[in-house]
Amino acid sequence: RREAGQGVAAAAIDLRGVEKTFYSKAETFSAVRSLDLAIQDGEFFSLLGPSGCGKTTTLRMIAGFEEPTAGEILLHGQNMVGVPPYKRDVNTVFQSYALFPHMTVAENVSFGLERKRVDKQEIRQRVGEMLEIVGLGERGDRRPQQLSGGQQQRVALARALVNRPRALLLDEPLAALDLKLRQAMQVELKRIQREVGITFVFVTHDQGEALTMSDRLVVMNGGLLEQVGTPHELYERPATRFVAGFLGTSNIMEGKVTGVDRGIAVIDAGADGRVLVPTDRSAVGDRIAVSVRPEKIVLSRDEPAADDERCAVTGTVAEMVYLGTSNTYEVRLNGGEMLTVLEQNHSTSESTAQRGDTVWLTWRPQHSLQLVDEPA
Ligand code: ATP
Fold it and tell me: Which domain of life is it from (predicted)?
């Protein structure tokens, strides 16, 4: 953040050209490739991607459990090459909370401060405050096994935060919890982060979790950065085919450009109708890929007027699923392609069409998002 009268403050965590290669007898394996990433002070930042994409390896390099094969990691402007984990101003919360079973909750939380020989009075005060923040003010005397999974997770969090690190690194901390508890803890964790105001770096493979909690996130795939941005930017403007498919549901269509007029390309997507795509880089004859989100498409039984400027394709409803607040349709276009459409049920719960009906799908050209195959 920029302070009046000062230059731009250093990022809390700055990765510059970071690579990690694992060498074994049989092979060398690139887990992280040339990663540039700046995480700002006080951000809730997530590393999101499928299993094996390099999230955990990246987190472990920030913590100092792994050294990068190449590149630099700076914490608040200081180069961390060769600095051991305990000398870095970060703490890590793992998926397995690793609480001491023979100690009470308060003893678990105070353990690190005792070892640092912090004043007894101060320890009591800081542990008390921290247990309040994580919602365990009344449970300091319990033992870990007398607590639920969610409560144990909170103890692990309190223990990591009580040392007042400048950043907290969390490796899939909610993965062991059941769905309901996980959702409740997502809200809690976000509240706690806001309250303590420190940088959180959160590893997850769950896109819903990353979208709900993050100020910003990075999507990784095969050791590479695909895209960085706010949840809104990544969902509304996915840059790559991978991001469009990994975050939410996406309809991906492909076709040759048959014309371009004032920055809008017309593509032949093999369907009856017209698919228009805003483009700043494609010309007639190029083959391009486009993503359209299911909720941007309007489904109707009427053919749009000839002078309608929206994208419009026609097909047959192959499936219709009633979901209470919404309906989803799978529509097979004349051409074979399947598109998913999400229709909100507002005042009426009557669905617009049934299985077998011929329908028209329309959307505004700006909701056709041109994708690239590989990150830039
Ligand atoms: P997950 O969600 O499954 O933990 P991830 O995105 O966190 O996945 P990483 O744990 O960072 O992935 O691993 C990235 C790749 O590096 C994987 O293919 C993994 O097998 C490999 N890898 C990780 N650690 C080592 C190691 N010590 N030696 C060799 N290969 C490793």
Answer: Bacteria
Query: For position 5, what pLDDT does the model report?
Result: 46
- The CATH number of the domain holding residue 359 is 2.40.50.140
311 in the same domain as 216: no
Task: From residue 84, give the alpha-carbon distance in Å to each of 64, 104, 142, 143, 335.
Answer: 6, 29, 34, 32, 59
Q: Mutation test of ligand 1: which of 19, 20, 22 has the most ligand atoms closer than 8 Å to its C-beta?
A: 22
Ligand 1 contact, 51 CB (< 6 A): yes
Q: Does the beta carbon of 29 sit less than 6 angstroms from any atom of ligand 1?
A: yes
Which tokens hold the place of 313? 């394709």
Question: Domain range spanning residue 224?
Answer: 13-239
Q: How far from chain centre, in Å, is Cα 283?
A: 33
Say yes or no: CB of residue 218 within 6 Å of ligand 1: no
In 3-state terms the chain splits into helix, strand, coil percentages (rounded to 5) of 25, 35, 40
Helices and strands of the chain, counted as H and E runs:
8, 20
How far apart CA 297 and CA 315 sit, in angstroms, is 13
* Distance of alpha carbon 7 from alpha carbon 5, whole angstroms: 7
pTM of the model: 0.88
Count of domains for the chain: 2
Same domain assignment for residues 196 and 312:
no
Q: What is the pLDDT of residues 306-330, one digit of tens each?
A: 888 999 999 999 999 988 889 999 9
Task: Establish if 169 belongs to a structural domain.
Answer: yes
Atom index in ligand 1 nearest the CA of residue 49 equals 6
pLDDT tens readout for residues 341-374? 999 987 666 788 999 999 999 999 999 999 988 7
Which of 204, 239, 274 delimits the end of a domain?
239
